[in-house]
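Quick one:
INPUT:
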């Protein structure tokens, strides 16, 4: 008679050697569940359909009772005349094991992906932190704080302290620049020799010293500027002023010498005239 294959569920004759759909053994290997009537394997200890416990030893001695006297389509092969038993297809237990293994592998891949993503993020944060600590631009430090909100507390605190120090330097520069004081500008340079405003501060000092030299308008004042600023922006102009004053001094000395000579000659002539008289 036609039964349902207990492995794949397709219809098959209870006299068939194997199921034509899944290849599992049928004849001599199946029996009926005494509870629900479904066909199951004789070596099952539990009915997969109703979960009724099955006595394997009793079920093996219980012959399959056909529902009718249908004549088999081909002769029944006695158990001792059967060909070697084919390996049984994987049971449901094996299927569940495969599913569990696949699930564990998937979880492992996910966790590895998360681990490497976090590792990459930590490495990027470390590089950004080191670059920011070496920078003198407040915008660079603020960008780190905005991008790495979840950075280690120690890193964020260091960046904040560095940012505050840079802002203080900027305030000091603004005060020195506005003051137009040589001493304030020089103090800023001494305290911040690597700051980007140092060059501008030196140019301002150079300009202030040249203004002082021009106000003095003497060879000494221009000479002092040239000694203090050998590479100064106004060095050539100061040298020209020094040379001009030196020429004027030489010319004045010459005029004075000539005048003295004339006065002396006049005095001698006057003295001679008195003697003659």
């Amino acid at each position: 008679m036609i039964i349902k294959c207990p492995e794949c569920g397709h219809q098959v004759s209870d006299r068939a050697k194997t199921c034509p759909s899944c290849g599992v053994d049928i004849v001599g290997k199946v029996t009926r569940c005494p509870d629900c009537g479904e066909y199951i394997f004789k070596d099952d200890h539990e009915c997969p359909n109703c979960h009724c416990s099955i006595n394997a030893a009793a079920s093996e001695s219980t012959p399959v009772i056909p529902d009718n006297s249908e004549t088999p389509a081909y002769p029944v092969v006695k158990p001792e005349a059967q060909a070697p038993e084919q390996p049984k297809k994987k049971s449901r237990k094996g299927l569940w094991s495969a599913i569990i293994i696949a699930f564990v592998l998937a979880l492992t891949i996910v966790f590895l992906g998360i681990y490497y993503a976090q590792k990459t993020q930590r490495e990027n944060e470390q590089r950004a932190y080191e670059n920011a600590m070496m920078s003198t631009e407040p915008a660079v430090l603020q960008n780190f704080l905005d991008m790495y909100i979840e950075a280690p507390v120690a890193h964020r605190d260091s960046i904040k302290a560095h940012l505050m120090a840079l802002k203080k330097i900027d305030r000091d520069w603004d005060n020195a620049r506005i003051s137009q004081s040589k001493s304030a500008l020089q103090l800023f340079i001494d305290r911040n020799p690597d700051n980007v405003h140092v060059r501008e501060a030196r140019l301002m000092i150079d300009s202030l010293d040249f203004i002082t030299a021009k106000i003095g308008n003497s060879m000494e004042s221009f000479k002092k500027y040239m000694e203090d600023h050998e590479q100064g922006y106004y060095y050539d102009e100061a040298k020209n002023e020094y040379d001009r004053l030196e020429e004027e001094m030489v010319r004045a000395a010459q005029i004075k010498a000539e005048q003295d000579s004339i006065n002396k000659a006049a005095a001698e002539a006057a003295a001679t005239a008195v003697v003659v008289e």
